[in-house]
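Blinded run. Sample ID left blank on purpose so nobody reads anything into the name before looking at the predicted structure. Input follows.
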Amino acid sequence: MMAGRLVKLIEKNSEQLARELSEKVWNSPRCSDLRKVPPDELRARTREIYQNLNNWLMDLTEAEIEQRYTELGARRAAQGVAYSHFLWAITATKEHMCAFVKREGLSESAMELHGELELMHLLNQFFDRSLYYTAVGYERERARIGTNLKRRKEDNQKVYL
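Blinded prediction complete.
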Protein backbone atom coordinates (compact mmCIF):
# COMPACT_ATOMS: atom_id res chain seq x y z
CA MET A 1 0.00 0.00 0.00
CA MET A 2 1.50 3.31 -1.09
CA ALA A 3 -0.26 5.22 1.71
CA GLY A 4 1.85 3.20 4.14
CA ARG A 5 5.04 4.72 2.75
CA LEU A 6 3.71 8.22 3.38
CA VAL A 7 2.52 7.31 6.87
CA LYS A 8 6.02 6.00 7.70
CA LEU A 9 7.49 9.24 6.33
CA ILE A 10 5.19 11.27 8.58
CA GLU A 11 6.11 9.14 11.59
CA LYS A 12 9.82 9.47 10.75
CA ASN A 13 9.48 13.27 10.64
CA SER A 14 7.16 13.44 13.66
CA GLU A 15 9.45 15.61 15.80
CA GLN A 16 9.89 18.26 13.10
CA LEU A 17 6.17 18.21 12.21
CA ALA A 18 5.18 18.49 15.87
CA ARG A 19 7.57 21.40 16.42
CA GLU A 20 6.29 23.25 13.34
CA LEU A 21 2.67 22.67 14.30
CA SER A 22 3.25 23.75 17.90
CA GLU A 23 4.73 27.05 16.71
CA LYS A 24 1.84 27.55 14.31
CA VAL A 25 -0.78 26.87 16.99
CA TRP A 26 0.95 28.87 19.75
CA ASN A 27 1.28 31.90 17.48
CA SER A 28 -2.28 31.83 16.17
CA PRO A 29 -4.84 34.12 17.82
CA ARG A 30 -7.40 31.50 16.80
CA CYS A 31 -5.78 29.10 19.28
CA SER A 32 -4.81 31.51 22.05
CA ASP A 33 -7.07 29.77 24.58
CA LEU A 34 -4.82 26.71 24.33
CA ARG A 35 -2.38 28.62 26.51
CA LYS A 36 -4.57 27.36 29.36
CA VAL A 37 -3.23 23.85 28.62
CA PRO A 38 0.18 23.00 30.08
CA PRO A 39 2.76 23.31 27.25
CA ASP A 40 4.17 19.84 27.93
CA GLU A 41 0.71 18.35 27.53
CA LEU A 42 0.22 20.07 24.16
CA ARG A 43 3.64 19.01 22.90
CA ALA A 44 3.06 15.41 23.97
CA ARG A 45 -0.36 15.33 22.29
CA THR A 46 1.01 16.79 19.06
CA ARG A 47 3.90 14.31 18.96
CA GLU A 48 1.54 11.44 19.75
CA ILE A 49 -0.56 12.04 16.64
CA TYR A 50 2.42 12.16 14.28
CA GLN A 51 4.38 9.32 15.92
CA ASN A 52 1.43 6.93 16.04
CA LEU A 53 -0.31 7.85 12.82
CA ASN A 54 -0.37 4.31 11.46
CA ASN A 55 -2.05 3.11 14.64
CA TRP A 56 -4.60 5.96 14.54
CA LEU A 57 -5.48 5.33 10.89
CA MET A 58 -5.28 1.56 10.58
CA ASP A 59 -5.64 -0.12 13.96
CA LEU A 60 -7.95 1.86 16.21
CA THR A 61 -11.62 0.97 16.26
CA GLU A 62 -14.37 3.56 16.17
CA ALA A 63 -14.97 2.89 19.88
CA GLU A 64 -11.30 3.59 20.71
CA ILE A 65 -11.34 6.84 18.76
CA GLU A 66 -14.60 7.77 20.47
CA GLN A 67 -13.16 7.13 23.93
CA ARG A 68 -9.88 8.96 23.31
CA TYR A 69 -11.46 12.03 21.76
CA THR A 70 -14.47 12.38 24.05
CA GLU A 71 -11.98 12.31 26.94
CA LEU A 72 -9.85 14.94 25.21
CA GLY A 73 -12.89 17.14 24.53
CA ALA A 74 -13.96 16.89 28.16
CA ARG A 75 -10.43 17.72 29.32
CA ARG A 76 -10.26 20.86 27.19
CA ALA A 77 -13.70 21.96 28.41
CA ALA A 78 -12.59 21.47 32.02
CA GLN A 79 -9.47 23.52 31.28
CA GLY A 80 -11.68 26.36 30.05
CA VAL A 81 -10.46 26.26 26.45
CA ALA A 82 -12.99 27.73 24.02
CA TYR A 83 -14.22 25.04 21.66
CA SER A 84 -13.55 27.24 18.62
CA HIS A 85 -9.86 27.44 19.60
CA PHE A 86 -9.69 23.70 20.20
CA LEU A 87 -11.42 23.05 16.88
CA TRP A 88 -8.98 25.33 15.07
CA ALA A 89 -6.00 23.48 16.57
CA ILE A 90 -7.34 20.12 15.38
CA THR A 91 -8.04 21.58 11.94
CA ALA A 92 -4.53 23.08 11.83
CA THR A 93 -3.11 19.64 12.68
CA LYS A 94 -4.99 18.08 9.79
CA GLU A 95 -3.97 20.85 7.37
CA HIS A 96 -0.33 20.65 8.45
CA MET A 97 -0.28 16.91 7.90
CA CYS A 98 -2.03 17.15 4.52
CA ALA A 99 0.40 19.85 3.38
CA PHE A 100 3.29 17.57 4.30
CA VAL A 101 1.74 14.68 2.35
CA LYS A 102 1.25 16.91 -0.70
CA ARG A 103 4.79 18.24 -0.46
CA GLU A 104 6.46 14.87 0.11
CA GLY A 105 4.12 12.63 -1.86
CA LEU A 106 5.39 13.73 -5.25
CA SER A 107 3.37 11.12 -7.09
CA GLU A 108 5.23 9.91 -10.16
CA SER A 109 2.82 7.16 -11.10
CA ALA A 110 -0.86 6.37 -10.95
CA MET A 111 -0.14 3.87 -8.16
CA GLU A 112 1.62 6.50 -6.03
CA LEU A 113 -1.17 9.00 -6.68
CA HIS A 114 -3.68 6.36 -5.61
CA GLY A 115 -1.73 5.84 -2.37
CA GLU A 116 -1.65 9.56 -1.71
CA LEU A 117 -5.40 9.86 -2.31
CA GLU A 118 -6.02 6.84 -0.09
CA LEU A 119 -4.04 8.45 2.73
CA MET A 120 -5.87 11.75 2.31
CA HIS A 121 -9.18 9.88 2.56
CA LEU A 122 -8.05 8.10 5.74
CA LEU A 123 -6.81 11.37 7.25
CA ASN A 124 -10.09 13.13 6.47
CA GLN A 125 -12.07 10.27 7.94
CA PHE A 126 -9.95 10.17 11.10
CA PHE A 127 -10.05 13.93 11.68
CA ASP A 128 -13.80 14.11 10.98
CA ARG A 129 -14.36 11.49 13.67
CA SER A 130 -11.98 13.16 16.09
CA LEU A 131 -13.78 16.49 15.66
CA TYR A 132 -17.15 14.88 16.25
CA TYR A 133 -16.06 13.02 19.38
CA THR A 134 -14.22 16.01 20.84
CA ALA A 135 -17.44 18.00 20.44
CA VAL A 136 -19.40 15.26 22.21
CA GLY A 137 -16.94 15.16 25.11
CA TYR A 138 -16.73 18.94 25.28
CA GLU A 139 -20.52 19.34 25.34
CA ARG A 140 -20.94 16.68 28.03
CA GLU A 141 -18.34 18.33 30.25
CA ARG A 142 -19.79 21.80 29.75
CA ALA A 143 -23.23 20.47 30.65
CA ARG A 144 -21.79 18.77 33.74
CA ILE A 145 -19.99 21.96 34.78
CA GLY A 146 -23.18 23.98 34.19
CA THR A 147 -25.26 21.56 36.24
CA ASN A 148 -22.74 21.72 39.10
CA LEU A 149 -22.72 25.52 39.02
CA LYS A 150 -26.51 25.63 39.01
CA ARG A 151 -26.63 23.27 42.02
CA ARG A 152 -24.10 25.38 43.91
CA LYS A 153 -26.06 28.53 43.16
CA GLU A 154 -29.29 26.90 44.33
CA ASP A 155 -27.56 25.64 47.48
CA ASN A 156 -26.22 29.12 48.20
CA GLN A 157 -29.68 30.62 47.74
CA LYS A 158 -31.14 28.11 50.21
CA VAL A 159 -28.60 29.18 52.81
CA TYR A 160 -29.80 32.79 52.56
CA LEU A 161 -33.50 31.88 52.75
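Unblinding after everyone has recorded impressions. The chain has one domain: 2-160.
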